[in-house]
Amino acid sequence: MTEHAILIRNMNKYYGSFHALKNIDLEVKRGERIVICGPSGSGKSTLIRCINRLEEHQSGDIEVMGTMLDENVDHIDEIRREAGMVFQNFNLFPHMTILENCILAPMLVRKIDRVEAEKTAMEYLARVKIPEQASKYPGELSGGQQQRVAIARALCMKPELMLFDEPTSALDPEMISEVLDVMVGLAEDGMTMVCVTHEMGFARQVADRVVFMADGQVIEQAEPETFFENPQNERTKTFLSQVLGH
Amino acid sequence: MSVSKSVSHDGVPISIFGAIRKKYFATPTDIVVSSILAVLVLWLLANVIDWAFVKAVFGAGRRDDCLAAEGACWSVIASRWRIVLFGLYPFEEQWRSGVACLIMVIVAALSCVPYFWNGKRLLGLWLSGFAVFYVLMRGGFLGLTPVFEQNWGGLALTLFIFAAVCILGMPMAIVFALLRRSELPWISRTMGLIIDTIRSLPLLTIMFTFAIVSPFVLPDWAVGDKLYRVIVGYAIFFACYQAEIIRGGIQGLPAGQEEAAKALGMGYWHRIGYIVLPQAFRNALPPTINQIVITFKETSLVTIIGFFDVMASGRAASGTAEWSFAHVEVYCFVALIFFVFVFSLSRYGAYLERRLGVGRR
Ligand SMILES: Nc1ncnc2c1ncn2[C@@H]1O[C@H](COP(=O)(O)OP(=O)(O)O)[C@@H](O)[C@H]1O
Ligand SMILES: [Mg+2]
């Protein structure tokens, strides 16, 4: 077992001729919780989506849970099994019930039988506090409930690592805390987490490290204490005054 | 009808006459237009009833009464219905053709039961129904006298062609649609070119090409019976249209759907089978039903290639000197058969749409 959950070395990503990520170096240890923030368009989503190959990087290395992310399809599958992902828009499967959403991948990918998969799914649904909605369809749930299901669905794969891409940005304000509570609980259980979010309260509470990005580069990274009280870079200061200032 | 359920503004139900008066006879212009149309409709209806029922001749073998009567000669149907339904199929064996048709109808009815609503069960149902249909029609084993394809006809042949085209064409359409959206440009372009080319040709041309021209081009072992060549041609034609319908359904999906499935580690075929296609078919249900209805109706084109489908058999039924005066009645009968099938198909489609809408909300 390697000590690192994620290891990114000198990674570059282009969309056509547009240089979206520039020489990214990033390490995430097992059990570590990282918050990534930065202005819109700075490449946060792109970075997190490169980690499970929803986007392909052009140069440099990405290693996840000791597996090198390269052209080998088995490696990609391996990494996707171990890294759960939660999206801004939930992306639940609308034609399946909540329970079916949660058992599909464990049954197909992990080859777990239905009874076992349903048992696990109900445990995680209880953990995100909506076991009673199991037989409903996503469209019948509120945004906050859907996002909690999305988290449960990812957890049902028993991942080693969870990636969050602005999980609360599409939610009505009154629903943000129910999702953050689940994420805090997950952090307390020792899950390795990489969260793109602008919830600075969450960052202070659970993050081991905050990473600030701008223009496709990692500008600065530090423990929350240092990051918020004593930012080094001018752009970090401007950004913080914008998100904290209001 | 909504008329009988109408309520006045204060919520009190009003009488049917009240509702009619309000809807159709409110202003002087309304009164004039409504009255003229009402008289016209009643007059037409009276004439049709008079022709089809009052002055009509029912019962088999009453040709002479028909010639004397002013009304419809339904006697021709009573005497010749077997030709319309079974064509040239040998008389003593026609029960087989009848049972085969019945089985196809049962299979169609069973596909309406939600239990069968997944790819595997639906395919299993149609393949086994189709196999039973084929064995019954063709015979040659289980003690059934063989009856070759050139003697099949009537409604049974129409149903056979229709079912075969759908069973063959639907999987082809899925494959075409997937190739069409392949990430490799040369695959998607080639598929696009093939689809667009075939769609720009008339169905009749395709049928002719496959029935008549293809034997000169194909090696002997691949030629097969003319009937099957026509079916393959028609199925490819169907698949090209249906592929574009499915592709439209796929494009209607948010990109996040496939990404979420990828992020869960699901492979290509799992993503296609469990996430993409089920939703694409839901999105594409109205045009798909429409395509199936059109396919059923256009089976009648095979008459031109010399097959005895229900349309051609109808013409044959009134084609003898004995009954030639009664061709209108025979066409009415054929039209009724088409209407029953097409109307139930489209009603079923409407029901499906309502029902599938539930999960989406
Ligand atoms: N699929 C894409 N094609 C082209 N450009 C893209 C694509 N996705 C993102 N970009 C560009 O890459 C940059 C970073 O985007 P993104 O990672 O979404 O930023 P963030 O998540 O930090 O807001 C933006 O300038 C965006 O316009
Ligand atoms: Mg983003």
From TrEMBL, chain A:
Signal peptide: none
Record SUPFAM superfamilies: P-loop containing nucleoside triphosphate hydrolases (SSF52540)
Name assigned to this protein: ABC transporter domain-containing protein
Gene3D superfamilies linked: P-loop containing nucleotide triphosphate hydrolases (3.40.50.300)
Molecular function GO labels: ABC-type amino acid transporter activity; ATP binding; ATP hydrolysis activity
PROSITE patterns: ABC_TRANSPORTER_1, ABC_TRANSPORTER_2
Pfam family, one: ABC_tran
Alphabetical UniProt keywords: ATP-binding, Nucleotide-binding, Transport
Family listed: Belongs to the ABC transporter superfamily.
Residue intervals of the ABC transporter domain: 6-240
